[in-house]
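Typical record is below.
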Amino acid sequence: MSAFIAIILLALAIWLVPHFYRQWRIFYLRSKPLTREQLQLIRENLPLYHYLNSNQQQELCSNIALFLHGKEFVGCEGLQVNERMKVAIAAHACLLLLGRKNECYPNLYSLLLYPDTYVAHETRREGYIETARHSAREGEAHYRGPVVLSWGDLEKDLQSPERGHNVALHEFAHKVDEEDGYFDGRPLFESSDEGATWAEVMSREFHRLRQRAEFGEFPGDTPSVLDLYGAQSPAEFFAVATESFYTIPTAMYALHPELYKELSHFYRIDPAELIRGKSTVA
């Protein structure tokens, strides 16, 4: 009997020790203060930061600290990764987590950064037939794997946010999407009630964008701020919508109010209202 109890206790210890260590490590890394240089880089590269209240800024910085200490940044094709690159990417990645329970992308261990648009090589097998395909990309998110980004394209996005594009937001929206185990455009909600109207609104907006992509814009159509790339799949639609939500929120709210409200409810932030209020925090 005592041997049986010892085995049970050992099994519990094997399970509990790594769990508590992980939680302690997350708490410890989140508590590490950012440097003055890092804080300045956040202010320079994340415009929305100035509109967050002090509690939101503190939460964001805590997640950024965890991100920077827990992820490896790998430069590809000779790119020398510097502090600005790391902080700018971490800030946008962590913006998507603000106000939500999270462990800061626990299945992401590394980011691959290219100096510019890069060529991705894909191999597909159907039965005995194997085909290879090469495509130019600005970024990609691998399921439970690394995020790949073109720094050159992200820098253009940072310089011209009014275009409504941000490859970092796009790829990390995919990582948010995968939290429930799928790239399907429906992220993990904290309760069933929270996503009650999500499917209806997202499906309607997705099919509206697909029609625009296939047939073009008809006279009298309501304009759209969504990139047509989002018409490829519900997963890409969610990522594209996330880009517009954070980069051009007032325009998105005006043209896609129901979609905007769904994203605002999920992400627990209303960037259009923050900007309209124009009350900034240093």
